[in-house]
Amino acid sequence: MTSPRFAQAVTERTLSLNTRLCVGLDPRLGEYRDVAALRQHTLDVLEASAPYAACVKPQLAFFEALGLPGFTLLEEVCAAARTLGLPVLLDGKRGDIGTTAAAYAAGWLSGPHAGDALTVNPFLGFQTLTPFVQAARENGGAIFVLVKTSNPDQQDVQGQGVSERVAVELARLGAEESLEPGQYASVGAVVGATHPADLATFRNLMPRALLLLPGLGAQGAKAGDLAGAFHSGGTGALASASRAVQYAQGLDVGAAREAAKGLRDELNAALGV
Ligand SMILES: O=C(O)c1cc(=O)[nH]c(=O)n1[C@@H]1O[C@H](COP(=O)(O)O)[C@@H](O)[C@H]1O
């Protein structure tokens, strides 16, 4: 097992740049006149928001929807992020049985389009997480497993204690890793920023997991409500916004930069850091 490089890089960036913001890239073809314009704007938003971001989270669905040009753009985004020093968390929410899970893990955590981390769906059972956990640990990468998603109807499937059961399993996986104080495991968790009342509970259930908190901005979550997800000093969680940055004011890249800066500042103000 190598040291959890992704978690470490994010934490170092959080502390050195004083930011807990994850910038999501969800490039929607309908916003642009063509793929070339989408490509340029996506790369411009990445560069403009990078100084305020602890990591970047490309949503694979929007790249896959473009076909081959989408995969080319994804490679460009990953390369640009690395140049900017930004860790890349691919949002794919993958999950499947046995060898298929292994193929997803190989593809997205070590293949040609790989990121540093990947979101993973645990619905098929805890054993199906194993190839993802192994790949993350072998590469020093990370996975972020869905615990309680940001959408209101998550309750249909994730209610009745299911989210808590997943959290307990992720805590068990995290405890397998030998970590220095202040380090986070290669197994993280997704907990919607739209559930502020539950954040402290999940923080306590998974003390060594980095928490990804999507839903900031467009889904109504407020930076001021997220303190329960963080450890003292403002580490341990990443609040994520996609549309609220990328399309803050249409395709205005300056507005995207200001939106990222504003969210970073609001998060810091709420945490007193
Ligand atoms: O894993 C995610 O990032 C994720 C989990 C979740 O519970 N809710 C959620 O919205 N997301 C993703 O985060 C992004 C949210 O986009 P905005 O609502 O525009 O910020 C989308 O790419 C979603 O797929």
UniProtKB/TrEMBL annotation:
Pathway: Pyrimidine metabolism; UMP biosynthesis via de novo pathway; UMP from orotate: step 2/2. The keyword Chloroplast does not apply. Residues 20-259 form the Orotidine 5'-phosphate decarboxylase domain. Its EC number is 4.1.1.23. The keyword Membrane does not apply. InterPro entries: Aldolase_TIM, OMPdecase_AS, OMPdecase_type-2, OMPdeCOase_dom, RibuloseP-bd_barrel. One of its GO terms (biological process) is 'de novo' pyrimidine nucleobase biosynthetic process. It catalyses: orotidine 5'-phosphate + H(+) = UMP + CO2. Gene3D superfamilies: Aldolase class I. It comes from the Bacteria. Belongs to the OMP decarboxylase family. Type 2 subfamily. NCBIfam families: pyrF_sub2. This is Orotidine 5'-phosphate decarboxylase.
